[in-house]
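Question (not urgent): is this output format expected?
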Amino acid sequence: MTALAPSLRRPAAALLALAALTLAVLLGTASPASAHATLLFTSPAADATVADSPKSLVLVFDQPVSLSGSSVRLKPATPVGTAALSQGNRTVTVPVRGTLAEGVRTVDWQVTARDGDIMTGSYRFAVGPRTVALASGQTTTAKDPAPTTALRWLLFTALALLLGEAATSRLAARVPDAPPRRPRSWALPAGLAGTAAAVALAALQVSQGSLASLTDSRPGVPALAEIAGFALATIAIALRRRTWAALPLTAVLIAEALRAHPQAEQAVAGSVLTFVHLAAAALWTGALIHVLRTLAAWRGDRAAARALLLAYARLAAWLFAAVVTTGVIAALLLVPLDDLATTTYGQVLLAKTALVAVAAGLAYAARHHLHRRATGRLPYRPARLEASVLAVVLAVSATLTVLRTPADAERPLSFAPPTTGPVVPAGTRAGEIGISARASTGQLIIDLTAPQIGGTGDQSYALSATLADPRGSKRRLALRGCGTGCFYTPLTWRKGTSRLTLTATAGEEWAGGRAGLTITWPPRPDAALLRETVAAMKKAPPFTLHELVTSNTARGLGDLKQLPLTGKEFLASEPYGSGTAPVITRLPDESGHRRLALAYPAEHTQLDLTLDESGRILHETLTAPNHLVTRTFVYPEPDEEEGHEH
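Got this back:
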């Protein structure tokens, strides 16, 4: 390539400096892009059977996602509506048009993660009155991982060659009596290759989604910064201002740090770890390649070659320390020790660790040879093997960028997962803490509420739970936080009545304690029975309501009050007075009396009603956030009712 004329170099250099400064400002104001999004929950739940056709599909991810380039498809082909985001862009809701026939359905989905990568996956659920055994599970993978891995390896290699050539030039310049001969520069081809790889990665992102997925500020800025960084570095090299390439290449490193996995765990520290790790690995690899090329050019000048190898060995020792230190810290952030050998990400990470160890061993062997033999053959073979191993390390590093990190099953969620199908509600109180439970297909969600003074954000809760299933076997439940006072656990319910023993606390300010709940599975929605009850209560003659109210069950159920009421007066103060409730399900009959459970999830309120043969309420237990109400209804005898009528 012909060098620019001197008269054109000065204005071109000024434009280059301005572009580099603009790039630095863009990167400085860009927010970190999260790592790959993982599908946490679905409604209907993966592998679940729902009795009725769902009105919508709900997908909950562990981080915000973008709808650009997204799609949710049902197979067999079924029309669905436009997807919508909620819950901080972590939940995707897609309306289902029409009614799904009985049978197994497959959901294929695709969304754009905030690092710009397209994530895809699938899961199955069944519709129908019978339980269908499904075992497909749900999957989350990066779309087109092979070309993405190849392009990112090319990008890493170009970065290594550019950084390595600059570092080797400085090392060679410090060698006493260094020969003037230098290998042909690879900087310009490397810059062009890096630019091409960055453009191809961006084009892949656009082809999978839309132009908006590239221009969006979060995933788009790092992608555009990598293109601009390599392009500006290439221009600087063409202008023979190689020192100016340092700033745009630094921008490339920052862009990679902003989109890598560690920053999702620690926004600042994670990005710094990736920056140092990638810079050190690229320098280690690129410098060794250029040292070997320089040694070939210096063939015959053994003293200078030995001095260059020793200088590189000292640099490589520091780079190795940086790679290992940052790599270990990043691994501890990303992968629980139990998942190292059992997950794909952990296994690839172990392979990378082994390769780095091999490279370190070869480097030590070469350095040991240099120190023990002042004369004789230089350790070319270990050095060449070391360079080959490091090139493979870069390829493995590129592979890690498209793999999903193991999900931490104990990490708290930002909000409760959606329920699947009908819900069995239950409520109670432990001391001053209200307990609201929702059992649905494949899961249990428990909400704790304590009396609030001011805001609710600072209140801390703790909960432990033991389940005794209908067969009598007991086990402790592994609970996962899902917001303030919210706890979630995946759970396969057995047919019959299960009993929960709960121990709840809310700091030192409020009294906690133990409480019990019963969950009868499967749910039996019965809206007609609630309407029958409301109609019967409206016809009920005046009766006496015996009521106990407490805000702290540790002090008993409260003082007894007797209130004369009519059915209409009572219904006027009840949330179900209109004959409807968000959750309605039948409970097992008790002593020949029908029972009904109602729930108002938004208010954390549950009711347990016991009915007589005509549908009138005999007993009611109401659990609300700040109190527990126990009511008994005493109706006049039949002859007294006749007296009221007359």
